[in-house]
Amino acid sequence: MGIVQDNKPFLMFLLRFALSYIVLSGIYWLYLSQFNPAEMQTDGITHEVARESSVMVRWLGDTSHTAPHSRDAADKLYVNGKYIARVVEGCNAVSVMILFAAFIVAFYVDVKRTVLYIVSGLVIIHVLNIFRIALIAKAGYYYPQYWNFLHDILFPAFIYGVVFVLWVFWVLKIYTNAKKTTA
């Protein structure tokens, strides 16, 4: 047997991952290219994430609102009337969602289970990201001295940790069980 045949499962994993990541990233790039950062245009997904984060801050007991940023393609997030944070394109977790979905596609089981798991995972990531931004905003208001640690270390570790757990669950429970039943 040749090296390609011996490594076919791994090569198929890499191919599915790379293709799905490139396609999803390309679609997202096309979406973002509609907005002009030079004109301070915030994309719709980021704007909605900022709005939903403000709603979550209110749900958690503080007043909050958003406003367009005058010097950046971002939305300003206010807590109790104080400007706390810019919500920029990188805050919307779409790049994390693309990475998540590409990994799940790489361990493809069947259309139904794969699509359902991706959709479920995207909802979980989105909701937790909104919660993450709301908590960062509240912490920025009440504990500004911890902003850098929370924003740069703790909360990114949280969101990537959740994605990692979702991946592990997919591989250990769903993918492995599907492979056992088809073997």
Keywords:
mainly alpha, 9% strand, elongated, 6 helices, 183 residues
| Count of extended strands | 3
User: What amount of the residues lies in strands?
Assistant: 5-15%
Low-confidence spans: none
* CA gyration radius, whole angstroms: 19 Å
Characterize the biggest β-sheet.
Answer: 3 strands, antiparallel
Quickly give the structural class: mainly alpha
Terminal Cα separation, in Å? Answer: 21 Å
Count of DSSP H/I helices: 6
Shape summary: elongated
- Spatial order of the strands in the main sheet? 1-2-3
pLDDT averaged over residues? 92
What fraction, in percent, of the residue positions are helical?
55-70%
Order of helices and strands: HHHEEEHHH
Describe this structure in words.
Helices cover 69% and strands 9% of the residues. It has helices at 3-6, 8-32, 44-59, 94-106, 111-142, 147-182; strands at residues 64-68, 75-79, 82-87. The chain is elongated, with a radius of gyration of 19 Å. It starts with a helix and ends with a helix.
Summarize the structure.
The chain is mostly helical. The chain is built from six helices and three strands.
List the helices and strands and how they pair.
Elements: H1 3-6, H2 8-32, H3 44-59, E1 64-68, E2 75-79, E3 82-87, H4 94-106, H5 111-142, H6 147-182
Antiparallel strand pairs: 1-2, 2-3
Helix pairs in contact: 2-4, 3-5, 4-5, 4-6, 5-6
